[in-house]
Amino acid sequence: MTFPGDSASIVGAGPTGALLAILLKRRGLKVTLYESRPDPRGSAGESGRSINLALADRGIHALKIAGIFADIEGSLVPMRGRFVHPREGPASLQPYGQRPGEVIYSISRHRLNQALLGVASRKPGVTVKFEHRLDHVYFDARVARFMDLRHDRIVEVPMRPLVAADGAGSVMRRRMAERGLIEARERDLEHGYKELSIPPGPRGGDRLDREALHIWPRGGFMLIALPNVDGSFTATLFLPMRGQLSFASLATPAAIEEFMSANFTDALGLMPNCVAEFQSNPTGFLGTVHAQGWHAGASAALIGDAAHAMVPFHGQGMNCCFEDCIEFDACIGRSASWESAFGEFYAARKPNTDAIGAMALENYQEMREQVADSAFLMRQALALELERRFPQRFIPRYSMVMFHHEIPYRVALERGAVQGQILAELTRDAATLAEIDYERAAREIELRLPPLQDLSSVMKL
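Given the sequence above, the corresponding structure tokens read:
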């Protein structure tokens, strides 16, 4: 590597910033992380603000490349599928895949951040400055101004370079857009979220199937619950922000109790503090960030949610950010300057992050409306059967995203669209798998889906 200087700074010490610091240190750089919040290792976490994270193949692959998967493995809870709780009828498990390893893992954001920061801070040459808030950026002078909240003073930091991993509300992204260095827009979803909790059962027992992501789909809204290592579940209610049935309309304890009882009777019985948590926990916002251009010359760049935040409904936000870090590190290894590395990183990642952002929005509708629909379940069962029969050509889109890090997101989106058409055509006049015309299926798949090994030229991150 022939970059000038031997150091880099990172804004944001969340999971993305911490992983990136570990990778940059491995390349011999001195790294300083600036984080606006206090050190999370000394606290129990911010109540009501954490949708549990779903770690899948892409994230695991990144952590293994960085050599730190073992540091967080003990905090993971496997989830074999979606456990769907319909309004009527029995709850049932819908497996994510059909192979033993096709599971995803639940982990609390706070616990993951603690583990990654612990690894990063133990590396000689990595410094973490907490309670340092990015205040202003002087692009011409290549200097960033931070407010040291502990000592009420201003600190100026040379951008040589400064990589912004400061999340969906990125200050750096907004400053770059204000200066016309990039184009950026933030599109808020009309739905928000509220965190609730399901405590462990007696003597730490499980109140729900522990190895599943639980979903209560209700059409225009839904409740989910992800398991924790202590037997508890972190539940999240997704609901419109405004309207006749919305967070705005649930303003009293009586209204909250009535709403939860009418729509989530079985879940309400597992949440003794539901109404109190509903009133005390903040209502979170959801949205998508679109940015054209992720860097300003050689001085500043965006990574992770700062560049492409997405809604959480495909469980890929963290996985995508970790994949960013691996690709960013690879671009550094192939480039002769920071500016060329930034440019290559943007060109490689932008089509893929656009693709997963679109799929995440689509998956919200699937989770809240379709998972209990018989036609959807028929297509899902057929997709798994076609994967068994044609494993080199047909892999369900969900599986491509969650269990195949070697398949780029954009390829999953493109092939998934073709597969969706094939599934719709094959199930149009069939009520069961036994009625499917598998000879027709073979012809259509051979004609419209090239073998995945023929995609080697695009099998990159």
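The first helix runs from residue 15 to 26. Try to locate this feature in the token string yourself.
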